[in-house]
């Protein structure tokens, strides 16, 4: 059976030492999140994840969700009680506004908690994750009355939320959607249509489900400019806030899918369901984008979280599994064989995963902190810089953390040999669960296009220039320190590759968009590597400074893992640059029929 | 529902034009395999795979194998009839010796047929695949009586075969195995023990199952030097060849695994089962190695085959799925959106898979041809050169074709967006099925160690030097041809990287084995890239020559795909070299507890 231990020490190192979040005491909610409070919260979150959520992960996968004949859905055994504990513990409202019952704490902290819960039980965590995403959209675009009606209940976990975008004929291209909304005399709408792939669409964890639904109002323009966003509760809410009649929305079936079986992924049928417009008519995508940014960072964390739990289990197995002898002579003579962790190829695999995980975690904290600044700072300039960062890094995080996170679960599974392929050890579940993160909330190819086609050129490349400037300044500041050279030298090389690639795109993609399309995925990966490398350089600097005052096993491991990243992973930037520079000619040469 | 069309034209191009197997008319069986006969066989094999085996792939996955209370195992609906068709069509004996009822045709041809069957239905194909592997071991190490008793029935598909190596405490390190064999007065042995992960261990497709079992004779030396190989039939065979009593071997349970659900992967319990020694006492690994080489090439083909069928389905979907518009303007104005194959990132993904598949197929044909030469030539020098090639390329093929083949199924699944994650389209099954090929028959990390630690240094590096010499000579011969420059220039660069890496290993790994261990996987991938690149250069030369006499869509696509490989995939050699040259210091620095 798989196990999990939340990486509290690593999160604390990032919050306290690397990003020093105590410096942000001027932001609302940050003074409440003092070091002591953070430690207590992380400790409780770890306990909940390790003791309540993780034990339900494999049973949830085996049992799955069941749609009953009356259209209700039963979640796996134990999920209901666990969700109650999550709700009552206030975990869904950790960084929600206090006026709606939340605790108003930094997103920086809630994303760390998020990682623990996803590592412990990804399918389960999605019920709460979707709820937080829907809450975010309501908070930004909902009317005061909508906020008052729905948000407190969702923050409390009494009700949950969903996002309804996809239809059979459209996922990426939402302009093709057909679900229709007919205006009623009382200002409400009647919604009719079919949505597919709706995570947490129907379940037994909460007494109401608040669906946010994209639909087209009768007579609206064709395409994406005629799409509006609606709130459609499963059970209608009376004026006094009590629950009223069942609305015309039902789960038609549960999708048969590769993983995340503990989450009910539903086909949702809307049949004259009553809904209310959120935000402006025909501007539904604005509201969705709020959810999407929130959701994309959450999905990035899913990649990291599955990579982390898979790593931990691979390490435990590699320490225990006795097989063969070390190439450099017997290591444990009293045993029939050495544990496989003596083998360089096993360590290479484990360090490859670990070196990614720790930098990915740093990148999440870094970006979550920018999210807090963007939403809470009084300084317009600070907000703009933070918002630039968010926009630029969201596709990179989503694409790179889920691609690499998935690949890492596969590598971790590989450490188990045949035992990784059978269900018992739980490793194949991590692979199946992690796979979805590369697909939903915008498939990773779309993230790459978003980066190259929108985020990079926006405002004359201001966000990317700021990032390049920050890395360059860091390299300059520490480049002469002998101990930092193993970090700064490869980082500078990698940054050079990214700048060359950016320059190539500026010269070659503006007039020929196919050059951007053919370069997009490699550019995203190149960008991610440089950002992860920068995280390592920052962490190494802090670790070296701390170690100078007295080293610890944690700090030593951190520095060795960082050097491994610099030696073995960061050099991949050269290949991405080479690929980008080949352009699109060969890629686009064949007719579609030739494939 | 997924579809499949066997790549007959591509196989014919390789057999007829690239490797010109008609030149090998002096080898037994090759004159029987004239161009006409090959065409007929490939056509029939395609038909069988497309029409009989492929339709059972998804139903086999859904239904799986069922162990009944009496220990018997029921395979999915349709498997029994399909196996009968395979057996009666003589497909299991295509390249088996004629004296045992086979057709004696080249392995070069039977491996091509093998690819078709695996693409169509991997789980199903394993029943026959294991049978052919067991037959090979019996043919090399069995007594004349053993061959006479078992081989004709196995070639005819009346009986099937298995390999029983793994036990709960050992897979890679077979010296740890505990299954015991007690000598009986009649020369037979009583075998007792538990074997796990036994593919096709029990089923209803044939009236007998011939288990080849590794066990330790009482009093044998400890470790691998005390391991012997036995033949243990499920049903004992009477002197007249008829079936007698049931033997003491039973299926204890079927493993719950990630994929290949149509194949019964069994825990096999041996309880005083009667067995007979194959080959010499305590030299069981010799017999197993025959099976393993056969099996490893077969597993390599599994990687290719799943990549191929996944590619075909991704292409079909990319041509049909309408979503968004081309970056360069509307392509199909009469439709609500363009098919996604207009997008460079989709084409990049598809070409990445295709460029691998076609070179991998060439590498399989190339190596299978060497297998034929090694086993059938009268010339000792030819046999030695071919055997060198086989030894060197087997781990490369197994490791690289299954790693990349799996990655390609994941990429192909990605083309479907959310539809790839649900079971309906069959893409997630390709991923789950392909995953096992990286693990069994020696996990890929073991293949890498086999390459670096054994195959490379063997006979003073003779095999590798021959390969380097062949590529160098080809590059020299065609390097001045203008049309070949896009192939020869990158190939020469990549070969240079491989030679540098080899030199680095010679200088650094002999005295410090950890440097070999830390380099092994990267060296294997680097080697594979160069070999695949060489295949592309050879194919390009032939395609160019043929195109000069009149080009065709096939030849044009071949040349564009080859250039894509050279531009986008082959440059990865640089990163592998860089990683190898970092050595093992950082990788080995941490204590096991620090992970």
From TrEMBL, chains A, B:
The keyword Zinc-finger does not apply. One of its GO terms (molecular function) is flavin adenine dinucleotide binding. It holds the Pfam family Acyl-CoA_dh_N. Its EC number is 1.3.99.41. InterPro entries: Acyl-CoA_dh-like_C_dom, Acyl-CoA_Oxase/DH_mid-dom, Acyl-CoA_Oxase/DH_mid-dom_sf, AcylCo_DH-like_C, AcylCo_DH/oxidase_C, AcylCoA_DH/ox_N, AcylCoA_DH/ox_N_sf, AcylCoA_DH/oxidase_NM_dom_sf. It catalyses: 3-(methylsulfanyl)propanoyl-CoA + oxidized [electron-transfer flavoprotein] + H(+) = 3-(methylsulfanyl)acryloyl-CoA + reduced [electron-transfer flavoprotein]. Belongs to the acyl-CoA dehydrogenase family. It comes from the Bacteria. Residues 163-272 form the Acyl-CoA oxidase/dehydrogenase middle domain. This is 3-methylmercaptopropionyl-CoA dehydrogenase. Involved in the assimilation of dimethylsulphoniopropionate (DMSP), an important compound in the fixation of carbon in marine phytoplankton, by mediating the conversion of 3-(methylthio)propanoyl-CoA (MMPA-CoA) to 3-(methylthio)acryloyl-CoA (MTA-CoA). Residues 80-158 form the Acyl-CoA dehydrogenase/oxidase N-terminal domain. Its cofactor is FAD. Keywords: FAD, Flavoprotein, Oxidoreductase. Residues 467-590 form the Acetyl-CoA dehydrogenase-like C-terminal domain. Residues 282-451 form the Acyl-CoA dehydrogenase/oxidase C-terminal domain. Transmembrane segments: none annotated. The keyword ATP-binding does not apply.
